[in-house]
Amino acid sequence: EVRGWVEDERRRAITRDKHGPTRTGTDFGGGAKKSSSVFVRGSSVSVRGTSVSVGGSPCRPPSSSQLVANAALSLLNLCCHLLDRQLAAQAEAFEKEGGFTERLYRIRINRRQAEHLLSPRERRPSSYGQRRR
Fold first, then answer.
1. HEC letters along 75-96
2. Beta-ladder partners of 33
3. Whole-structure pTM over 0.90, yes or no?
């Protein structure tokens, strides 16, 4: 799936205009953006009234290796997030139910109490305390 995504991204990079439009489409109308007193129009930048000419060369598309690295980082981030959620759930379960030893002890005590409530004929023979012949 990553290979297909990389190929799709490379194809998109070819069809973009020379400034590489954003994928989110959040640009402010008319091609002008404001960012702390900086206005961008076409190939010139105006900073507080002073105009500076900038090059109009197209943005270089990211290489396949860059895209694969970004995909790997995204997957690692997702794995870390899921592991954090799993650890939080396990911590909550441990606080409510106790650890493995506590749960095992509880089960064994409950079983012993249930066996003591049964009549002697209904009880299972216990291997504790019996001699081997």
1. HHHHHHHHHHHHHHHHHHHHHH
2. 40
3. no
